[in-house]
Write a structure and sequence with these properties.
mainly alpha, Arc Repressor Mutant, subunit A, Serine Threonine Protein Phosphatase 5, Tetratricopeptide repeat, 4 domains, 3-stranded antiparallel β-sheet
Length: 665
């Protein structure tokens, strides 16, 4: 029997093995199911079911319960042969029981995960708690908030969730992620201001991020709230923390740990290298590039530092006047790239210029082919998001050389370039999926872990665009598993954003908005300004338009002109103008707006233009946008980014076609 799963952390729902929602008919059917779930596999007498469902039993109530149970059985076990006993919703003595497996109910999985997290290391606990908290879709047993039989279980689960949020914050603090803990604790306390432990954790997190004054302000706010609202003084832990913050007690900092054997080895090896390799030796330059490459995949400050040092290393190599050395220095930075927009376009242009100059100076053929391939792949990567034909041409040439040389590491680097240059028009998700599939197979076979993670992330994005979220979920999980095992923290930034997109695509708008805010907090400080700037504002605008029921004018009411729109500001300004009623100015700006950049947001930005063009009845713009979007007719707009979506492209094409037809008539 295929396993049916049940959700009570939100409205009561049942899903089939493929994740499809089962039709549970009316509220009384769901009430019977929910009441049996609260019994946790134990039998509930029919008389008790009648009392819980009706309070004062109506004539024929027992027969009604039996009818509800029969209907539920047909939904939960549709293939069960007639006159054979049920195996899931079973009859037992004077009542019924739901024999769901322990992992088949989201509330039971949540409870088990929270219990397990208490015994895990902080890193494992954080991962476990994040996954557990994602199970919540709303208040537990949301459909039955007023029912006495649900009240105790709702309260118990709500308290457990609050403890899990605080447990998650403790794990982050233990891992040195104090800045990440602050926004979620802020939101947590806004809804539950009586949680003394949450006040303590927030103050400690602020202190550890260098915000001593803010930490003291939080503690004083907690004292005032407890006194005003509850008439009590803070407990001993809050009082002790206030004293320690004022004294800047060293105990508040993360405890210093003794140097590990790995750290000792690194220190000794670095000292020996510094002593034995001459200061001006070229070997130092090439070794430095290896360190810069390793630094880049750590994310955050490491990525920012790597980007800064990389250009300095290239400049130093060029000064030596050796094109072969320069080619090795440029090409050694084979850090996988998933985002098709540059973090620093100015530096990217400098790197491309150096690569082109080196390429021209390098002898052709023979032993230099691998170096030429790496230079071409670098050009393809650094020209991401541009409309120049050089980027795609460099990607093709690099791929041709790599296939000819049959070098796995070279092939992976070249495929990354091909992916980066696969956004020249709409509808290329299948092409990107094929690149991702080849990367996963190649990298897994040859132990190229970072490129295996990249391949899964590419497939996660592409399958999102194609609407296959089951496959996308699998690739997100695979990327997370590999990244956690191999210390590649940036991967989880993208998978967290993907899971927010997943909620948006399934119509869970409030949950998606909260998930986007949490994902944005995680992205802050990740060292990827090309991804970060403007993304949260764009995601919120896309959320308003994703269901197809909100007009551009209605969405414009919520667009904040002063928000961080980053590179998406020209599209946001269309909505700002529309909100002010300046339709002629909006028309003029719409006509002047260039084609969106050749990146993963192409379809999303086209649809934002289309929303405004539909509002204005701008025929020329609508015809142009229809032609741009048509190749992506079977995709979800924007979902290829793995970050946002505006719903099916087909729906936008239909709206455009209808609007053009009306104007023709």
């Amino acid at each position: 029997m295929e396993q049916i799963t049940f959700g009570v952390l939100g409205p009561v729902v049942a899903w089939d093995a493929a994740g499809g929602v089962l039709g549970l008919k009316g509220p009384r059917h769901r009430a019977v199911l929910a009441r049996l779930i609260t019994a946790r596999r134990r039998m509930v007498p029919v008389a008790r079911l009648v009392e819980d469902l009706w309070g004062e039993p109506a004539p024929g109530a027992v027969g009604s319960v039996q009818t509800f149970v029969a209907a539920l059985r047909r939904v939960l076990e549709p293939d069960r042969p007639a006159r054979t006993p049920a195996r899931l919703l079973v009859t037992e003595g004077p009542g019924y029981a739901l024999r769901a497996a322990p992992e088949a109910v989201d509330a039971w999985r949540f409870e088990a995960a929270v219990g397990a997290a208490a015994k895990l290391s902080p890193a494992k606990a954080l991962e476990t708690l994040e996954e557990a908290l994602e199970l919540w879709r709303g208040p537990a047993y949301a459909d039955f908030a007023q029912e006495d039989w649900a009240r105790g279980e709702r309260s118990r689960l709500a308290e457990l969730r609050l403890r899990a949020v605080e447990q998650q914050a403790r794990a982050r603090l233990a891992l040195g992620l104090a800045a990440e803990a602050v926004p979620e604790l802020d939101a947590h306390l806004a809804e539950h201001p009586w949680r003394e432990e949450a006040w303590r954790l927030l103050a400690l997190a602020l202190y550890r991020t260098g915000r001593q004054a803010d930490a003291l302000a939080v503690l004083r706010r907690a004292r005032a709230m407890l006194a005003d609202e509850l008439g009590v003084d803070p407990g001993p832990e809050l009082r002790r923390l206030e004293t320690d913050v004022l004294a800047q007690d060293p105990r508040l900092d993360l405890p210093a740990e003794p140097m590990t054997s790995t750290e000792k080895l690194w220190t000794r090896a670095a000292a020996d290298y510094d002593r034995t390799v001459a200061a001006g030796a070229r070997a130092r330059l090439e070794s430095t590039v290896g360190l810069i490459r390793d630094l880049a995949v750590t994310g955050g400050d490491g990525l920012r530092a790597a980007q800064e040092h990389r250009l300095a290393a290239i400049t130093a190599a060029e000064e030596l006047g050796d094109p072969e050395l320069t080619a090795r220095v440029i090409g050694a930075y084979d850090v996988p790239a998933i985002w098709t927009r540059n973090d620093d376009p100015h530096k990217a242009r400098q790197i491309v210029a150096a690569a082109e100059h080196t390429l021209a100076a390098l002898p052709t053929g023979g032993s230099h082919e691998a170096a030429r391939c790496r230079l071409l792949a670098t050009i393809a990567l650094e020209m991401r998001g541009t409309r120049s034909t050089r980027g795609p041409r460099a990607a093709r040439e690099a791929e041709e050389i790599a296939r000819r040389l049959d070098d796995p590491a070279l092939m992976a680097f070249a495929l990354n370039g091909a992916f980066i240059q696969s956004c020249t028009r709409a509808g290329l998700a299948p092409r990107r999926d094929a690149i991702g599939a080849e990367l996963v197979t190649l990298a897994a076979r040859h132990g190229l872990v970072t490129f295996e993670v990249l391949g899964h992330l590419i497939r996660m994005q592409a399958q999102s665009a194609l609407g296959d979220f089951t496959a996308a979920d699998e690739h997100a999980a695979a990327a997370d598993h590999l990244a956690e095992r191999n210390e590649r923290p940036l991967a989880s930034v993208f998978t967290q954003w993907y899971r927010a997109l997943r909620l948006a695509a399934s119509g869970q708008i409030p949950q998606a908005e909260a998930a986007y805010r949490a994902a944005a907090a995680r992205l802050d400080g990740a060292g990827m300004p090309g991804v970060e700037h403007g993304l949260l504002s764009l995601a919120q605008l896309c959320l308003r338009l994703a269901d197809g029921n909100t007009s551009a004018a209605e969405a414009a009411e919520h667009v904040d002109a002063g928000a961080d729109w980053g590179p998406y500001r020209p599209w946001a300004e269309l909505f700002v103008l529309l909100r002010t009623g300046r339709r002629a100015d909006t028309q003029a700006m719409l006509r002047a707006l260039p084609e969106p950049p050749a990146d993963l947001m192409y379809e999303a930005l086209c649809c934002l233009q289309a929303a405004v063009a539909l509002e204005l009845g701008a025929r020329v713009a609508l015809e142009q946008l229809h032609a741009r979007l048509l190749p992506a007719a079977c995709e979800l707009a924007g979902a290829g980014s793995g970050l946002v979506t505006l719903g099916p492209v087909d729906r936008w094409l239909t709206d455009i076609t209808d609007a053009l037809g009306r104007r023709s008539g």
